[in-house]
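Fold these two proteins, one after the other.
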Amino acid sequence: MSDGCRLAARLWLPAAQDAAPVPAILEYIPYRKRDFMRRRDEGMHRWFADHGYAAVRVDMRGSGESDGILHDEYLAQEQDDALEVIDWISRQPWCSGNIGMMGKSWGAYNSLQVAARRPAALKAIIAVMGTDDRFAECIHYSGGCLLNDNFWWGCIMQVFNARPPDPAVVGERWREMWLERLEAERFWPHIWLQHQTLDEYWKHGSLCFDYDAIACPTWFWGGWADLYRDTPLRLAKNLRVPHKVTVGPWGHLYPHEATPEPAVGFLQEALQWWDHWLKGQDTAVMKEPPFRFYMMDSVRPLPYYAARSGRWIAESEWPSRRMQTQVFAVTADGLRAVGVRAPDAAEAALVLASPQSTGLAAGDWGSFGNPGDVPGDQGLDSFGSLEFDSEPLAGRCEILGNVRAILELAADRPQAFVAVRLIDVAADGTATSVARGFLNLTQRDGREAPAPLVPGTRYRVAVELTGTAYAFPAGHRIRMAICNAYWPIVWPSPQPVTLTLFTAASQLMLPVRPPEPNPAKMRALPEPVSASQSPATILRKGRVERTVSIDQITTEVSHRLYVDGGVFGDWGKFRLDDIGLEMGHVFERVYSIKPNEPNSARAGMTQTYDMGRGDWQVTLKAGAVMTSTESTFESNAWIEAYESDQSVFRREWRTSIPRKGL
């Protein structure tokens, strides 16, 4: 870099070294190309090199074997470095000067962000499962509500940021670089909790405030089980450059290795994209409808879906002119379709005071494809909800897009939130989650300046649920469930709240996709492929444990997740045989709360991360706890680093942060 910082990269080149220069594909993330992402990277980037591209995987500043410090997510420094990386690649003798950028999650964010900076050599991007709105749709906040993922993912990054570079690459500098990272370590949830409303911190790096900034062709891939379910719909609507959007049933994984099935040939599809935009070849990639969505069939609630039945559908524009809005009136007797049957016009005032433990079947906010991380049978949370059911459907009803709930309500406290769930109810009463949405009622009129509620005053608010594509079968009922506590997804309101919902003015609005009389025949997506990966040996079999328990004496409800293997599941401890490096990550996360005490909420996390080779052995141990009072968020966290069982560093953080409308 221009400031002297050196970034570490891994490069794959086509086998024919004497061939003409080729376009390059860049992936630029902080998740360690040498070890943690080694085998995943090889499966993708080696495949691209085998098909005529230079593939470059760069560790961001402060990660892997790169110099420097990673101070936070998506900083301007990160983008500035990316511009220099792109310029460097474009000037290499093996590069034709045309570059594509791609990535999933963090790599999707910075692909969009860097494209908005318009480097001359960047000709196209592929972004997989990221967001264009960092405040509305990330792991931090949703609908202005604080997500517990803010704590959990911050704890994960606490350990990730503390990992040392590999001495086999950087030599004796490894310890100096490691200690520099440890000394600079911050507990990132403290940073994020300083920004409880939409401010300049969140606007930075959020494409939604200037879609026109992107000038290069863009292909976004998403998953209905992922946490970024709305970005694909917004990008489909708002981008002005040539663009495509593909959304499958997947969790937070690349589409060629994703669950639930069907996984697809993402690499072959990407190759067509790169050939078209980087090599100027006439592929079919831009000759078919640009927007392809997986319409999921109805399913019974299960802890894990290996596959989701359904079909691919296509739209040539978004929003599609063929979509229709089906409005249901909310009555004391349930949902009544407007225009089909005259709804009961009498207003009912329904009282809602959800136990703080509502959310027993919540699962996680976004799925990594691990057992138990999807919502379970929603009947488990009926006790804490107002539920409104439609009549049994006369025919199949397919929805595509964002469901909206228009609610007229009042609260007895100045701060409150509401959670709305759309549910598929089978004839036997089993209830499957379809979509969810939240609204912090202090942000009812905007995300930048929260306004307290006036107790007893009626407000009319709109709650947008996450995007989906789902088919309700004939004979099933559509249910809207409303609650004002939803643990452990959303942090509770500062005080117990009673809401009053007024039925006459409240509505549910479904984006219905009518049956196609003559659907066009679609090209089938190819089967997944990947290149060979370096060998690995399992040293300790991993496992995942997930339980919800009730203490019959204290009434405390606890959600426990134990993973031996890290964020992607039961990897256990393993050795990367070609570099002789052993790795293991074990964490335990416990979210607990008492039904009648919002400030009994407690999030706790402990972790152990091991890595080593021969005599070089490093262990990281970390822990964190978050609680709250009516006026503050309280947290303490610690990390300790060991070299060969000897402690070489320890740091603790304690913070009290005022609540601002949360």
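Now the second one:
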Amino acid sequence: MEMHQIRYFLAVCDTLNFTRAAERCNVTQPALTRAIQKLEDELGGLLFRRERNLTHLTDLGRLMRPHLEQVLGETETAKRTAKGFLKLDDAPLNLGVMCTIGPQRFMGFLADFRMRHPGVELTLLESVPSRLSELLMEGKLDVAIMAQPGPFEERFDVRLLYRERFVIAFPAGHAFEKRNALAVQDVDGENYLSRINCEYRDALGELCRERGATVHRVYSSEREDWIQTMVAAGLGICFMPEYSASHPGIVSRPVVDPPVEREVSLITVGGRRFSPSVAAFVEAVRRHEWGDLAVA
């Protein structure tokens, strides 16, 4: 069964006249008649009864009409959807973002991407690197923005976006506020607020032990907003990436002895073909001026 046969059949249903149906479909009447006959052969019975100048649907024709109308309608919908997808109209894009990445570095980029590709429907999901990696491999995420202390798995393509320093965040009025920069050992004896989802949590803990710095862990939380609010309230200090420190009530100073930084990268699955929306997003990332934020 071919789509043109269905269109011809439905045209005859509407006009009950083979000549007018052929004109509507822009084909000759013999071509339309042959297509209807082939459709009747496939379905196993007559669809129309032609009596002199009168054409009527048979019982089989009446039975088939709603089914074939549905087939044609769904086919046209599929074509429109595919056309819109390729033109980036209502094109989905699932972006995974590591939950410790602050949003301000991305607002300019996302605003520009939205302006250039208004038809892309972007869904953002936050999680830890291990979970984002799983979702990428399962195809539930198209791309992810992540950082981690060690190298990513070989199955991923990694594009560096920017480097970001770690800072020590503390409340206004703290003694650290008089300093321009801090050493890791300066946190010795401080009340500490632990960011549970920090991908550098273990590495920072090991660094503190190496430098002889012991902190008093008073609170732990998976939520960055709670940690920052507790810092602002004077409940303790914490290490955090420079561009994650967004609460207006906290102050921060960079860690310079030793300097600690992370590389924030765009991650995709190696060898996987991009949809048009993903290809547009990756190209926009490539062209965006992220700036050189490497620690000197």
